[in-house]
Structure formats: C-alpha cells, structure tokens
Write a structure and sequence with these properties.
141 residues, alpha/beta, four-stranded mixed sheet, 4 helices, 24% helix
C-alpha cells in the first residue's frame, strides 16, 4: 500500500472549490459576500447555468483561490440535501486571525453562535449556521 501512496503523492496541488447546495443563489451570495466578507471569485454563465464561486477575501484574484461553489439545487434530491449535505457534520472550517471580530459581526447579523469544544490547544472556535442551516466553524489557531 505504501507504494501506491508514493505513486499518488503530488497528484494535486490545492483544493479549488467545494459545493454548497443553495435554494437561492442571490440570497446565498448576500450571506457569504455581504455577511461574511467573502469575495466573488467567479460569476459566469454556462449555457444558462450560473457558475457562482466565492471565497475568503484576501485570496488569489481571478478565481484561483479556494472557495465555495454556490450551486442551485435543481433536482428533488438536491433540494432535499440543502442545509444537510454533510449529514449534520460541519460543512467547513474558516480560519481567522480575530475570532472576537467574527463573533461581533455574526451578532450584528443576528446569527446565533455557540463556542467550539476546547481541545486543550491554543486555539478557539465558534460554531454557527448559514442561512440554510449548514454548520460552519470559525477558528482562531
């Protein structure tokens, strides 16, 4: 098995996008861009299908940064998964240099938060939900 791992090492250089199923792309954009301060990495059209990618501000310009693909849920199966596509586990962890600032911003937006579970390390975290109920974690390491 170690030979297989060695053969696969270096195949990928970065994570590009993860999909977040949404009911309304504009509402999701408002939450992530206007609420959390994300930037639009790419907003385009592919044969009538909107490609909307957002990511943390300060990342690479031109859509090259790690981010979220806010993908409209069009099928019944996708609509059923909106807000619970990770089976109740957190969707993602967002790193910050100022957790107090994040907490204050979320409070101003009326977003409920709860402290993360202390793990004995030097960091702190808090949990909150996006407008569809996906759990997100803000962590200051």
């Amino acid at each position: 098995m170690n030979d297989e791992h060695d053969a696969a090492t270096g195949l990928f250089t970065a994570v590009g996008r993860t999909v977040v199923l949404v009911e309304d792309a504009e509402a999701a954009l408002a939450f992530y861009r206007d609420g959390l301060g994300f930037t639009v990495l790419f907003d385009g059209d592919l044969g009538g299908y909107r490609l909307l990618h957002v990511g943390p501000a300060g990342g690479p310009a031109g859509g090259a940064g790690t981010g979220l693909w806010l993908m409209p849920a069009e099928s019944a199966q996708a609509r059923a998964a909106v807000g619970c596509q990770t089976g109740g586990m957190p969707l993602l962890v967002l790193h910050t240099d100022d957790l107090d600032r994040v907490a204050a911003r979320l409070a101003r937006l009326g977003v409920a938060t709860r402290p993360g579970v202390p793990d004995g390390g030097p960091g702190r975290s808090l949990h909150f939900r996006d407008l569809y109920g996906n759990e997100l974690i803000a962590a200051q390491l």
